[in-house]
């Protein structure tokens, strides 16, 4: 009985001691927390400064990255603009090429034309034919031409093959007679046209070429026998400027150098002429 009471007293005393120990531990923890709050560690400002520096560095890196991204974006935009400009240029060149090819096709083909020209002619007999008077005239020449022209793919240059005839009348050696001047030739010309509108249907140009032909002067002189009148075969030279309207209508202002411009005494009379100056109209069939 006594031992049981003693054991109970011991247990109560142990319980009281454990409660007292827990209270002391709690008080010590509270005291340490208060001391930390009242007296923070000496290295706390350093930690705050490092944190602030890290924050600033992060912000700077973020700003730098943003600037780099903006710069890259601008460079990409400029690159795309250059590519777009180049594509537009290529498209324009392709469209121009197609337009020129179509124009070349439309301007190639057979044509017919009419010519109105002028030439200065002087002629006089040699001494053995003193009964004849002199000739000094500038007859109008009328003519026709027909041929084929072929434009190259650029639509600007072309070759033209054609034949033409020109003739006109003037007063002869006798007051009641007429003399004639005539020329005929086969020609090849190089044409160069410059379009002056967006659709390439109107153009200004120049041309030049050569040919072989014949020209001569003739009048009826039955009473004089054994002499031929001035005429010759030879080289022909063509030079001129042109204007094309709506692809099919071509006007030209040009000169033609005939084969024979001055004679010797091998002919019945002396003959001399200028170049032929003419205007012409060609219609593309």
Automatic annotation (TrEMBL):
Family annotation (InterPro entries): OMP_Helicobacter (IPR002718)
Name of this protein: Outer membrane beta-barrel protein
Protein species of origin: Helicobacter pylori
Database matches in Pfam families: HP_OMP (PF01856)
Superkingdom, taxonomy of origin: Bacteria
Keywords: Signal
Signal peptide: 1-21
């Amino acid at each position: 009985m006594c031992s049981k009471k003693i054991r109970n007293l011991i247990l109560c005393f142990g319980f009281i001691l454990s409660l007292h120990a827990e209270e002391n531990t709690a008080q010590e923890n509270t005291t340490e927390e208060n001391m930390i709050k009242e007296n923070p560690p000496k290295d706390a400002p350093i930690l705050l400064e490092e944190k602030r520096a890290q924050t600033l560095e992060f912000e700077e890196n973020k700003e730098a990255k943003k600037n780099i991204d903006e710069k890259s974006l601008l460079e990409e935009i400029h690159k795309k603009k250059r590519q777009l400009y180049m594509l537009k240029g290529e498209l324009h060149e392709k469209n121009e090429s197609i337009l020129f090819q179509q124009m070349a096709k439309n301007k190639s083909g057979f044509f017919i034309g009419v010519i109105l020209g002028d030439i200065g002619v002087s002629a006089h007999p040699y001494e053995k034919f003193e009964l004849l008077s002199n000739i000094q005239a500038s007859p109008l020449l009328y003519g026709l031409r027909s041929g084929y022209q072929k434009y190259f793919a650029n639509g600007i240059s072309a070759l033209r093959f054609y034949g033409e005839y020109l003739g006109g009348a003037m007063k002869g050696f006798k007051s009641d007679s007429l003399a004639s001047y005539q020329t005929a030739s086969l020609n090849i010309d190089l044409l160069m046209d410059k379009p002056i509108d967006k659709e390439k249907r109107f153009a200004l140009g120049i041309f030049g070429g050569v040919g072989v032909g014949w020209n001569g002067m003739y009048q009826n002189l039955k009473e004089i026998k054994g002499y031929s009148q001035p005429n010759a075969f030879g080289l022909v030279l063509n030079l001129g400027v042109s204007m094309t309207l709506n692809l099919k209508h071509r006007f030209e202002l040009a000169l033609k150098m005939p084969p024979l411009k001055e004679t010797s005494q091998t002919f019945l009379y002396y003959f001399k002429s200028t170049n032929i100056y003419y205007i012409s109209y060609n219609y593309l069939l």
